[in-house]
Design goal:
- By secondary structure, the chain is of the alpha+beta class.
- The chain has 3 helices and 2 strands; from the N terminus they run H-E-E-H-H.
- Strands 1-2 form a two-stranded antiparallel sheet.
């Protein structure tokens, strides 16, 4: 949690961090947050991490994995901040995530 906060503060990304220490999550305080969450996942996959705005910490996560995750998170957060600052359309390769059951109902 503290590392997400440190990275976002250094970049100037407006996020709220909550959840238990073992299962933290972050909320992007922007209108197009669903697109931004999808972009985060899309770009983190390219970095080798299946990641979303929530994380489940495990004893399998050693220091090397954690440091690589944080470096990748910082890289993607910087991309997100750039898109926001330049008011650019989020370049998604997939549909933006849904927060309701609309995707399940025809």
């Amino acid at each position: 949690k503290s590392q997400w906060y440190k990275i976002s503060k250094n970049i100037g990304l407006d996020i709220k961090i909550s959840g238990m220490s073992s299962m933290p999550n972050f909320i992007l305080n922007y209108k197009n947050s669903n697109s931004l969450y999808t972009f985060f996942t899309q770009e983190m996959i390219k970095e080798g991490f299946l990641a979303s705005n929530s994380l489940t910490v495990s004893y399998a996560h050693n220091l090397k994995i954690i440091n690589n995750y944080l470096k990748s998170t910082e890289k993607v957060f910087k991309k997100i901040k750039f898109l926001i600052d330049k008011n650019l359309k989020v370049p998604l390769e997939y549909k933006a995530r849904q927060t309701n059951f609309k995707r399940l109902v025809k």
